[in-house]
Amino acid sequence: MNPVADNPLQAREDFERAVEQLFEPLIAHFSSGKARVRPTASGAHFPDVSAELEGFARPLWGIVPLGVHREFDRWSLFRRGLVNGTDPSHEEYWGEADDYSQKHVEMAAIGVGLMMTPEHLWEPLSDAEQERLVAWLNGINDAQLHDCNWLFFRVMVNVGLRSVGARHDWAFTQSSLDRLESFHHGNGWYTDGPEDEGSPIDYYLPWAMHFYGLVYATCADADPDRADRFRNRAEAFATSHLHWFDDDGRALPYGRSLTYRFAQAAFWGGLAFAGLNPLPWGVIRGVWARNVRWWLNQPIFTDGGLLSVGYRYPTLKLSEPYNSPNSPYWAMKAFLPLALEPDHPFWQAEEQPLPDLPERVVQPHAGKVICRDDHLVALSLPQDSVHGREKYTKFAYSTEFGFSVAGRTPGPGRAGHDSSLALSLDGEQFKIPSSSAGTLVDGSTLTSRWEPWDDVSVETWLAPAPAGHVRVHHLETARTVHAEEGGFALDRTGDDDASAFSHDTHGTTALATYPNGVSGISDLVAERTPAVVSEGPNTNLVHPRTVVPTLRETYEPGEQWIASAVMASPDPTADWEPLPELAATEEGITIETHAGDRLLDCTAGDWHNGRASKEI
């Protein structure tokens, strides 16, 4: 059941109503004391009380902005929950928030509520109720937090307490902000934590680092120099982040926490909230509205109208250990622009499409080459992360084809090998990179090194090409290695009619065609065996049933040059002529187009100190 199915999501009033429609199905799952929400029996790695607090707090990210200028008839529910959840004598008490507790995350929405809607969440409380709320929130100043965007939760809480004249720790707030600013690496690009500890660049940059920074810059008037830095960085980042969105509003699926879905629009709402328009207001409103609208027209809801765990459809296979049934409501952060006056330029502007954007954009900070063809693709360098190798180390991430995670049974095709080179020692247990020994951006060529075992290494070059991209791998191995290389995962809807799809595996090309598109991979050097492999159900972010064109080979000890051309299109009639087959020399490999244009010139590199030295 889609609770917003009848909502056109065009005017401001439509988005206001959408907040209420999204919240309404949750109401039946509130506890009697209104401090906890438990919609299903599934859980996360943290205690149930924290998951149930998520269900209470996360809707506030949308309800608080809504309540700034519009009546909302459920404030008494939230006041009752605040009073009971912070009362140690009440059975629904949330408990103290110890070091690294998930409760710190949920405190942030309450802090923002105190900033923006104190008349609903603070002033009606008695003195004793206020003091208990203040005592509970101040727990965030007594605990250790993860050294990443979590430090902003302390900032949001203390700014909220400060705004109502309550006890808080401003000095600790400033030191936390100093630490957060140390994660900035130039031109608006942050890592989510210390770079030397493998902190990745992903959506926590726009929907956390920038989002909270813009809230702080707008609501905290005692720190103007820092506020200006936050604004300037967000303006610089906006022109880069625009390339992560396609004409329909879809954003590149990449990294962890993708179950937060239309939180992808939160950065654009944060810009508007801070009064910033590095792009025309119509462009900012357009990319924001299209993203929210696209998401709310996807099958992302449960039968009861709740936001599900998953991406474009419900599936737990893509979740992180910290995803509870209530976690997806972090998406409500997208509705921050509702806190603006109705006559704000953001709301007065007509939606505009994306401006003319180049077909290829290199983003060195992110380690990506953004390719805008008939679908939006990011060629990508691997990043270290504890949150799932498939989410950070694939060669390409696409708005149309998504990416897949590993299946639960071993064997060929079960390693989530789309857009990857998967290796195995026994032919059964395949794996793709979980980390990288080094990376390099050189023009529009991305280079990385992977060392899956002590005596096996792979150096990879990745570059855009007409109708797709090319990959070159230099494999050095002291033992026999089984290899599978996959193209893009393709939606196999329509396979109930044998005449509607085809698997073409002639020569060294694997090509799959279905009603919703075509995907192919072709070997450019050797005689790898082509196959079209069915992935495990519900392992792809975008489509529950997919196939992956794949090349297979077993390599004996020694050195090997491996090269591939890869393409995919949502148009099943799209033509594709792979690049000419090439012969590698001992020194390297060169790839050219049919017209003779040089695409890639690779020489096996010398790697040292985690960086590459090579000729390209």
Automatic annotation (TrEMBL):
Keyword Metal-binding: no
Any single Pfam family the record assigns to this protein: DUF2264
Designated name of the protein: DUF2264 domain-containing protein
Residue ranges of domain DUF2264 in the record: 12-354, 375-577
Keyword field: Plasmid
Keyword Transferase: no
